[in-house]
Amino acid sequence: MTNHVTIGRSGGLVPKPRQAGIGVPRDGVDDLARAACLAVVVLFHGIMMGVTPAAAGWSVTNAFDGQWFFPVLSLFLQVMPLFFILGGFSSFGAWQRRQAAGVGAGVFVRERLLRLAKPAIVVFGTVGLGLAALAVAGLPADLLGQIGFRISQPMWFLAVYIGCSAMVPFMSGWHRRNPWATVSVLALAILGVDALRQGTGVEAIGLANLAFVWLLMQQIGFFVADGKRPERGILWLVFLVPLAVLLIGAGNGWWPLDMLLSLNPPRFSLILLGLAQLGLMELLRPQLAALLLHRKVKAVSGFANAKSLTVYLWHASVMSVLLGILLVLGVPMPEPLSPLWWATRPLWLLVLLAAVVPVAAVLHRFEKPSAARPAAGPNSPAQLAGVLSTRNSVAATGLAIAAVVLVLALGASPLSWLAATLLLAVGLTVVGAWQPPGNTALRLRVPLFGKAILR
Q1: pLDDT digits (tens, 9 = 90+) for 196-213
Q2: Distance from C-alpha of 367 to C-alpha of 58, rounded to nearest angstrom
């Protein structure tokens, strides 16, 4: 469906108000920005990885760790805030469309979980078996642990995104009833957690912001989905004011300038960065729209958006395999940050992209939603399943998050990856992932007649 626009007084594109019931159409500019964020994440992780000689033979490290320039660089490379905002835009539209089809919250959460957990179980199982094979082959335990740790690092996104996606039906309801109160409560919760964390010195308190920060990012995406984009003068304020507050706060020690440190656990500074990124994206909207007129740009954006989760889940594993091949072949590894290292980074990143793209093209089938969905309507099996499957969907979501947390906590161990695979399999079984579309909903009708089924 086309999103009609008019030309604003400032020359920018200003969408016309949407008619009730139409829902949120896809937005090519938002898709392009999401594709750019994904590319930055892959390239960021690729350039950060360094390999140095060690007692075990080689050591895999963060090449930028402790470097003076990295905090400033992180302001440009930390794009997860904008990624979550755009994810909120997409999720809000998906929930509207499913609601219009008569689907309840339980079924929607199940659908989102299947979309996220099915490709994840393939990654977790493959990595677990691969690390186990390397251990049996005699790879030094230190190096094996470093590989497992590096592959597990990006997986935090999966746990948080699963949780945020499960909250979409409820958070969107609060957004419709009182949008500003919702974001205000979340913002105050984030500031409260940051204050307690800094006042007590207990870093673990900050883990609460894994929920509050990313839910607020998603909630900002709901505002984008409303289609009410301000004029350019306001957009300049949205870009500059949060950025200024972020820099002032970093200068006064309220949070680190290093956005990677602000990510673990997340702080309020990420909200400021996300708002600044959103403001900049909207300021550049006419230019981004012009880029989409080029067929190749549109094709790349379409590829990245269709396979975004597959690219994200596999890029660290692909990178580790490439490094392993280079080491086995005896290719010299330049010292991280040396002139030769910098000179070879463009080639390394091109090789990484050239490897990730075909892997994503092949494995994308696990990310695809089911071709057939249960019928919709007030009295349909899908609607009845929505009432009865909410508890199952919530339980399965909890198991999926627990699986990722297990990998994050013990990612160096092959057993942790295999145990996480088992948890994901149990969670998917709880929501009937292995049954043909339609069968699950029909079987769930039985309890309405007083018969219990152990699912």
Answers
A1: 999 998 999 999 999 999
A2: 34
Handedness of CA 188, 189, 192, 194 (dihedral sign): negative
Segment 9-68, tens digit of pLDDT: 333 333 444 443 445 667 889 999 999 999 999 999 999 888 887 766 778 888 898 888
Condensed to tens digits (0 to 9), the pLDDT of residues 395-412 reads 999 999 999 999 998 877
Q: What are phi and psi of 320, to 5 degrees?
A: -65, -40
The token duo for 420 is 């996480």
> 253 Cβ partners below 8 Å, 6+ apart?
none
CA dihedral angle for residue 358, residue 407, residue 43, residue 75, rounded to 10 degrees = 150
Q: Which residues pair with 59 in a beta bridge?
A: 52
**Residue 104, strand partner residues:** none
Tokens of 119: 């490709």
User: What DSSP character marks residue 263?
Assistant: B
**CB distance 312 to 159 below 8 Å:** no
Count CB-CB contacts under 10 A for residue 68: 6
Query: In angstroms, how far is the first alpha carbon of the chain from the final one?
Result: 39
